[in-house]
Amino acid sequence: MAIRRVNQHPIVTLSNKTKKSYEFFKQSKEVMPGGVTANIKYFAPYPIVMEKANGAYITDLDGNVYIDYLLSYGALMLGHGDKRIKEAVIEQIDKDGTNLFGTPHGLEVTMGKKIKEHYPSIDLLRYTNSGTEATQLALRIAAAYTGKHKIAKFEGHYHGGYDQVLLSVNPSLEDAGNAKKPKAVMESKGMDTYHQTNTIILPFNDIKACEKILRANKDELGALVLEPAQGGFILAEKDFVHQIRALTEQLGIVLIFDEVKTGYRLALGGAQQLFNVKPDLTTLGKVIGGGYPIGIVGGKKEIMMESAPTIAADVFDTSQSKNSSAKEVLFHSGTYNGHPTILAAGLRTIEVLEKEIDRVISITDELKSRLERLFKSYNIPMKAVGVGSIFSVILTEKDKILNYRDLQKTDLATRKEIDLHLLAEGIYTKPLNRYSLSTAHTMKEVELTVSAYENVLKKLFGGPRY
After folding, report:
1. Average pLDDT over residues 10-22
2. Which of 33, 116, 282, 313 has the smallest count of CB within 10 Å of its CB?
3. Helix or strand or coil: residue 267?
4. Residue 158 annotated among the catalytic residues of the structure
């Protein structure tokens, strides 16, 4: 696909509009390594620094206003500064007299019951402080339950930034090896090569190849963790999910659905509602915190009970009995687990979504449909890939995008070029990232977004080619 270059590169245009962000970024490098406190927040030549937000909009230091489709990587399902969340937070602090007990409290049960309403696979649950912590705890619980410590994950799937799962998330196709038996590629400095042997990489949406690998490693594999929609938007095929469910049951491998991205976004009950399948364990995060940090691990009672306190001593018990020790107890702790203010915000978010999620999904579908029609009018092959309130703009002639390797063979360079131009047009997501919508997005934002896209396509490709 040949891009007709405009007079000015999008980076130049963007730099002219975001001079205060550049000056701030120079200062931030004197405080934080590389100028950011999380690598995901950076993109070249420098990240845009935001000053305020409201509803579906964010405003940068230079006063540029953007329609926000990043939404803190999907966490803000009610948009920015929703009054109902503010009210819930204030009510909790006023009622309880504190924003942190450090002890059990009522909202832990109230929130847990609400989660269980929408996720029937969850008998019992534990709270964590992030989705990353949730997946890490899920893997520990699975190992304790099965006595097996190797794990399997899928190529292209992300489950957090710790060593055990930070493999083959975004490998080069040269390093990734055979598509039917992918290599375990480490994705960070400082990792031990131990994990290349103990984390098995699977090809997504390829049941025959997966079965061969799983059967060969069944005696050592305690858990298989997957995103039921890779990156939140490449959905597993229904038959594939059901076959994986049956296979893991047969082989004694704990099946973990990482629904941190997809929970309360594809449907109230996440991807497992769409598939009508029950994983052994589920991890949740993002949306359920209402903009605050949270994670949940939940699942079958007999598996979750591995995390229950017992008469054996935990790591902080200095009065260990003669008959037990900390190593006999699955350790899980956290000062802020089940934080009352966060649970109040999350509970209110879910209550709103029970009434409004269908509207969010309908608006998302409308935006996807209109963007596809627009690209078609320019004779540019594009698919808006995703379900529910998440999608990504994929430039491809393929009928289906089934996995990481399919995605890598799409026109990512043009997509990035378009994204950079869209930033200058007031449409915000990190280049190449997915789009997430919220209850704050309306048909007004759809109209403005489609118009911005049309402006960019005209700059790059000239007029429509009906």
Report:
1. 91
2. 33
3. strand
4. yes
Q: Are 160 and 136 in contact (CB under 8 A)?
A: yes
Known catalytic residue at 163: no
Element (H, E) at 392: strand 390-394
Strand, helix or coil at 223? Answer: strand
Identified catalytic residue from 286, 368, 383, 459: 286
Residue 123 known to be catalytic: no
Q: How far from 233 is each of 227, 356, 367, CA to CA, in Å?
A: 10, 21, 15
Locus of tokens 């420098």: 46
Q: Which amino acid is at 153?
A: K
Residue carrying structure tokens 């090569």: 193
Per-residue confidence at 321, pLDDT binned at 50, 70, 90?
A: low
CA nearest neighbour of 164 among 147, 139, 181, 182: 139
Residue 77 and residue 390 in contact, taking contact as beta carbons nearer than 8 Å: no
State residue 6's pLDDT score.
Answer: 56
The catalytic residue among 60, 68, 258, 411 is 258
Residue 314 pLDDT level (bands cut at 50, 70, 90) = low
Give the integer Cα–Cα distance in Å for 351 and 368: 26
Q: Which one is catalytic: 66, 158, 404, 435? A: 158
